[in-house]
Amino acid sequence: MGDRRVVITGLGAVTPVGNDVTTMWESIVAGKSGVDFVTKVNREEFPAQIAAEVKDFEPTTYMEKKDARKMDPFAQYAVAAAKMAVKDANLTIDESNANRVGVWIGSGIGGMKTYEDQHTKFNEKGYKRVSPFFVPMMIPDMAAGQVSIQLGAKGINSCSVTACASGANSIGDAFKSVQRGDVDYMIAGGTEAPISNMAFAGFSSAKALSLNDENPKQASRPFDKDRDGFVMGEGAGLLILESLETALERGAHIYGEIVGYGATGDAYHITAPAENGEGAARAMQHAMDDAGITAEEVDYINAHGTSTALNDKFETVAIKSVFGDHAYKLAVSSTKSMTGHLLGAGGSVEAIISLKAIIESTVPATINYETPDPDCDLDYVPNESRNQNVDVVLSNSFGFGGHNVSLVFKKYK
Fold first, then answer.
1. Domain pair 6-249 / 259-410, same fold
2. Are strands 392-399 and 300-302 parallel, antiparallel or unpaired?
3. Cα 366 to Cα 258: distance, rounded to the nearest angstrom
4. Domain residue ranges of the chain, discontinuous segments joined by +
5. pLDDT digits (tens, 9 = 90+) for 78-119
6. How many other CB atoms are there within 10 angstroms of residue 206's CB atom?
7. Are 20 and 84 within 8 A, CB to CB?
8. What is the number of other CB atoms lying within 10 angstroms of the CB of residue 92?
9. How far apart are CA 293 and CA 288, in angstroms?
10. Which of 409, 365, 370 is nearest to 386 (CA)?
């Protein structure tokens, strides 16, 4: 069972550039930015005043009001995206297969809004006014728990908490669960709702956020010489992974195949990437080895590309170290230039974008690319999406703590 082929049959997304996959993809292809002035915190209290927020999201479209009230927004986003993905996959979960349907949803931070709200109540009114749902609303694994409850999935239920690699780790681990035969189906991805006072304060104190407040839509500028930090985003991306056998048996639409997963640790620093992207390079090579492909077979890299000085420089160095001369023939882009950085949900939303690139023969652009950086000298698909055949995509996600993940998606044949 260990060599089962694993395909993707359903997609669901809640993002700053659209609350469904179709709208999100249309925005990405058009180069539309989801960044604007932040509304979920008092921007006058912070040096950074912009964010990529989810807009016009109504949780009761996807769940009962009484259930939504017991969920932090990060779990609401996950339930919504999961239900979209299951519907898109035309997957019925019932007594006949529930034990073979698993859930693996990562989150880097979990219920930040819940934590802040309840901490305020505790300080002002004491412990008796703290909600009895405080802990289950806050903990990062509860997105996976709520999706399992809402959909009746009784297979493996897990959560990867690996900072900004959480969503990608979750997809990779879900892939291996299906490949091994532990389950037949996985609802997998990441979710995050971090736009809160404490998260804004923490990243501001770390001087990690872009201060380009005068031009919000131009603030996220990966690989550009004038980049000055990332833009915090939020949302969720969920995929239905299943064995090729079950997909064919039920006549499912197949978006593509996941064929490689590489995960490494830097063992270097709590926030900075390893020198010259050494750990990232190993993750990319492991993913390609796992997929059984050569560097020359990769057409497009959806880069981690956070718009921070060190990440973009060292990711570029890592790509060149792994791909050699082919690095200059690859299309490389960062869709964070449009979505902002969704932290733990970034890798899963970018996995969906990678699959759409294959299906639509379209490579998304890196918008706001205006001033080339000598340290970043690859083809970053500047400013306009590009029509080209895409058979193989490698998607990178890296996180604080030295977590590196690369996923390989391939056109289904």
1. yes
2. parallel
3. 24
4. 6-249, 259-410
5. 999 999 999 999 999 999 999 999 999 999 999 999 999 999
6. 11
7. yes
8. 9
9. 5
10. 365
Both structure tokens of 343: 């932290």
Which residues are part of the catalytic machinery? 164, 304, 341
Check: CATH 3.40.50.150 for 259-410? no
Looking at domain 6-249, its CATH superfamily turns out to be: Thiolase/Chalcone synthase (3.40.47.10)
Give residue-wise pLDDT tens across range 164-201: 999 999 999 999 999 999 999 999 999 999 999 999 99
Are 14 and 57 in contact by the 8 Å Cβ rule? The answer is: yes
- pTM greater than the 0.85 cutoff: yes
410 forms beta bridges with 257, 392
